[in-house]
Design goal:
The protein has about 80 residues and is an all-alpha fold. It contains four helices and no strands.
């Protein structure tokens, strides 16, 4: 699982600590795609309506596999 999370982190897919509503998946996808969190959430809902059911499986998987954004502590 660490290998998957490192790969996602290298590609810029991380769940941000700020702006997350449920798990931060849509906010992370939006950040990676260069759009805001709310447009990403709307796209997610539209995709759910067009292809019912798939996102219900995809969201929890991304929640597990997308790593949390690291916090940098400056001393």
């Amino acid at each position: 699982m660490d290998r998957i999370q490192n790969s996602m982190r290298n590609h810029g897919l991380v769940r941000p600590r700020e702006g997350a509503v449920l798990g931060g998946v849509c906010a992370g996808l939006g950040r990676r795609l260069g759009i805001g969190a709310w447009p990403a959430r709307l796209l997610f809902v539209v995709a759910l309506m067009l292809i019912p059911g798939s996102q219900i499986l995809v969201y929890p998987l991304l929640w597990v596999f997308m790593p949390r954004e690291e916090t940098v502590v400056v001393a």
